[in-house]
Amino acid sequence: MTFLDVRDLRVHFPTDDGLVRSVDGLSYRLERGKTLGIVGESGSGKSVSSLAVLGLHKRARISGEIWLDGEELVGADEEHVRGLRGKKMAMIFQDPLSAMHPYYTVGQQIVEAYRIHHRVSKAVARKHAIEMLDRVGIPQPNSRVDDYPHQFSGGMRQRAMIAMALSCDPELLIADEPTTALDVTVQAQILDLIRDLQREFGSAVVIITHDLGVVAELADDILVMYGGRCVENGPSTEIFDNPQHPYTWGLLGSMPRLDRERSERLMPIKGTPPSLINVPSGCAFHPRCAYAELVGGACGYEVPQLREVGGGHQVACHLSQEQRHRVWHTEIEPNL
Amino acid sequence: MATYIVRRLIGAVLLLFVVSIVTFTIFFLVPRLGGATADDLASRYVGKTAGAEQIHQMAVKLGFTDPLWVQYGRFVGGLFVGADYSTGPTTVHCPAPCFGYSFITQNPVLPDLLDRLPVTLSLAAGGAVIWLLFGVATGVLSALRKGSVFDRAAMSVALAGVSLPIFFTGLLSLSIFSYGLGITPPGGSYVPFTENPLQWAYSLILPWITLAFLYAAGYARLTRAGMLETMNEDYIRTARAKGLPERTVVVKHGLRAALTPIVTIFGLDLGLLLGGAVLTESTFSLPGLGKYAVDAIVNNDLPKVLGVTLVAAAFIVFANLVVDLLYAVIDPRVRVA
Fold this sequence. Notes:
The complex is a heterodimer.
Chain A: E1 4-15, E2 18-30, E3 35-39, H1 46-54, E4 61-68, E5 71-72, H2 78-84, E6 89-92, H3 96-99, H4 106-117, H5 122-135, H6 141-144, H7 154-166, E7 172-176, H8 184-201, E8 204-209, H9 212-218, E9 221-226, E10 229-235, H10 236-241, H11 246-253, H12 292-295, H13 298-301, E11 307-310, E12 313-315, H14 321-332
Parallel strand pairs in A: 3-8, 3-9, 6-7, 7-8
Antiparallel strand pairs in A: 1-2, 1-4, 4-5, 9-10, 10-12, 11-12
Helix pairs in contact in A: 4-5, 4-7, 5-7, 7-8
Chain B: H1 2-33, H2 38-42, H3 52-62, H4 68-81, E1 83-86, E2 91-94, E3 101-102, E4 107-108, H5 109-144, H6 149-163, H7 166-180, H8 197-230, H9 234-241, H10 246-274, H11 278-283, H12 289-298, H13 302-330, H14 332-336
Antiparallel strand pairs in B: 1-2, 3-4
Helix pairs in contact in B: 1-4, 1-13, 5-6, 5-8, 5-10, 6-8, 7-8, 8-10, 9-10, 10-13, 12-13
Main location (chain B): membrane
Family (chain B): Belongs to the binding-protein-dependent transport system permease family.
Subcellular location (chain B): Cell membrane
């Protein structure tokens, strides 16, 4: 049985301007001990879909199915889902300064997370908090446990945040842009830490990012989202070595690389992310896609379905396999 | 933390000093600037039949003819070591701390003030408890159900509460509940707490509610605005992600963070009220500091007015100090600063 099985998830927000279709038919599977990287630009629905897994949307219309360890979460009793939050599934947020409460010490916040799900004394929970801080590599955890978040550096704060999320040994860990607010040098440390802890705890990890570089080494599988849908997914190596979707090509092309001449320019994706109220008809990416004319009209009116292209690799694009193959090898790859 | 406290304490003392200068200026200097001579000032302290010569003698005796800094020195000195006033054939002593001596009722002001303070204190404290409970609770519920019928109704009532003056709501409630239905005591029936706590509460219930209505309205709006802001913070989402029950999320995480401005305003309001809830006390004929000040003003009894002013100012300074110290307790980020 798949550990996390998301099927045709839709998260819509009714607003005064219309229905915002943040996630519109997303499916993926994740096993214990594996890491899934969800990649996409702002507003692609990557965070929204993950918050939906934790049941953290208050005013959203959610449909589809989310199976966690054989249990359906969509439509489940709220109190029951609350009991799973923090214990069975936990989340690390982007900016640890704003994601931690400024008025409570780091220790208090970890203790609180632990004590909701474990009936232990404050002293025991405090010991556990110190242990967790030590485990995520915070020096002098005995004294740092009584510090406030603002007394920590950015990297240390993210470590503390991770300690908090892991305090109840969650089986599913969702990291939402865990390194975006950090210095580049610290980013690598945090990613290493997440990988080490995953090995230690054997949890399933979802890493949400707009930065392919972040998931390059960490993720077993990668799912690329655009306009609330999955446009391409597959094993990490497949996505990097044999990407099939023009949007993925764009992401790869706009990624700075150290092994390239500095004179070469990045290739940004033209245009802006789509409105989620008036999602473009057909393929949501077609107004920005440089290869839509190769297909003819279909891109503008027919939503491409995900199709298997071999090796567990799926792509949703109207281009034929030969066309994709040719463009990738002649136009994209040589320029990367 | 210690430096923070010391700095605030020094600030408070300096502020009291400034207050004394300003008060002195208002009571002794401004009339002069307005063209009043020393004799004009002294004329308030003698009988109406006094001649110009007598008035001048009184002006000399009371020191109105001395240089200003000497007068200020005497004024401040009185606060620390007491003062002697020779008003005629006899000399009266006003023991330290001397807040002034009323030549009209022939007694030092301070005992009067101490006599009136418990009334004002009772009124302010009781009212504060009610408005804080109702105001904050209403604000939180309104914020959580933003746009609901409850929210709109509460905010309309709150708007009425802020807008309606206390002499209107006070008189209205007196006429309905005391004189119409007869379920609350009429105005002017204050019973000291030490005499009979139950009667004390009964005699104050209407003033409390009237006062609380005015203030609760403001607190409800303030709390609502604060909660709307904090409940959208990232750390609220984190709290939910931990699996905390919604009640804990709202109170321990949301309200806690929205508390800072509420505490600030609360301290200042309380300090202000302790100097005399002039309108409420007058409306309900409560013998507190506010009523005392009004009576003194009506009788042109300057030393009493001066005394109340000093006490009121001191309360506000003190309230400010307490608020500053509470800041550090509430918001750990203040402690380092």
